[in-house]
Structures are given as structure tokens and as C-alpha cells.
Design brief:
51% of the residues lie in helices and 13% in strands. It is built from nine helices and eight strands. By secondary structure, it is of the alpha/beta class. The strands form three sheets. Strands 1-2-7-8 form a four-stranded parallel β-sheet. Strands 3-6 form a two-stranded antiparallel sheet.
């Protein structure tokens, strides 16, 4: 709930002097409202988003695969997470950490171009090992060089600023 999130962040900010980043859950219907509320409470950034809660069945045994409802993610969740990065970036303009569905450098670029200033990579490292991380960084460097981006800031939010909603607003103004 936005009001509960506000109170928790306010209490934390009152007693500590470190940056506070709130990880939003997509399992509730109001991530944008929660982001707005925690920003007002003093949060330094939000993470969009945590994993979705899902339920997976092994049809051969009739048993749940994960012992019950559990956090799930992967490439299929990326567009859902990018939706919230876009909304928070365009409507609130606060710092965002992108998370959920990142596999390689192309996914990192998508999150940055949508508005995430920081990108979290987790699950793929559990699958491929830490040796995968330099490949992601190398891919990002090559992409930036081949497309003429001098730094991350040059890519940050470019797709969200060009989105249909923003394009239509610009069209009306001109």
C-alpha cells in the first residue's frame, strides 16, 4: 500500500544516512503509486521490478514444481518490467534500478534506453556463472561503440522520451 510504503521509508530515512532504494513488486496493481509515495517519503530510487509470483505444475506427477507459489522471472518478464521503468521514468522522473528479465547486453541496453540508470543482473549469473558478467559488459561496450554512444547518459531514457505518449504530447505542442 502506498501509505504503508511511505511510513516505512520515512522511518528508515529518519534513522540512517545511506541511500534508500525501494524494490517494487509487480504483484500489486499500483507500482506507480507506491513509487510516487516512497519518493515523497525520501527514497533515493526505486527498483522496477521484483519477480512475479507464479505457480508451476509438473503434469507428470501432479506436484507443484516449486513446492508452491514462488518468485519467477526470466526473459518473458522483461517487457512487463520495462513497462514500469517507462511509467516511472516518464511520470515521476526519479532514479530507477532495472531488474527482472535481464540476460545479456541487449537487455541491459533496453532497460537503460527505457530509463533505468542502474541495471541488476541476477538469475542469469546463477545459471551461467559469474564468467557471464564480463561478456555482458563487453557486449555493452561494443554496442555503444558501434552505435556512437559516448556513455550511458547518451542512451538513458531515449526510448521512453520517444514513446507514443510522449510523441503525441510533442505533436500537440508543435
Amino acid at each position: 500500500e502506498p501509505d504503508v510504503a511511505y511510513e516505512v521509508v520515512r522511518a528508515v530515512k529518519d534513522v540512517c544516512n545511506i541511500p534508500v532504494i525501494v524494490k517494487l513488486t509487480p504483484d500489486q496493481s499500483r507500482p506507480l503509486e507506491v513509487a510516487r509515495s516512497v519518493r515523497e517519503a525520501g527514497a533515493d530510487a526505486v527498483t522496477a521490478t521484483n519477480r512475479y509470483t507464479g505457480f508451476v505444475v509438473d503434469i507428470e506427477t501432479g506436484q507443484p514444481r516449486l513446492a508452491g507459489p514462488a518468485g519467477i522471472g526470466g526473459p518473458w518478464t522483461k517487457p512487463l518490467s520495462l513497462r514500469w521503468v517507462n511509467r516511472i521514468y516518464t511520470e515521476l522522473g526519479m532514479p530507477i534500478t532495472g531488474s527482472n528479465g535481464i540476460y545479456d547486453h541487449r537487455d541491459v541496453v533496453e532497460f537503460i534506453m527505457t530509463g533505468a540508470g542502474i541495471v541488476q543482473i541476477g538469475s542469469v549469473l546463477m545459471i551461467k556463472g559469474i564468467k557471464w558478467l564480463p561478456k555482458v559488459v563487453e557486449g555493452l561496450d561494443k554496442f555503444m561503440d558501434s552505435h556512437g554512444y559516448p556513455d550511458i547518459a547518451a542512451m538513458h531514457g531515449i526510448a521512453s522520451r520517444r514513446s507514443v505518449k510522449n510523441y503525441s504530447e510533442q505533436f500537440v505542442k508543435s
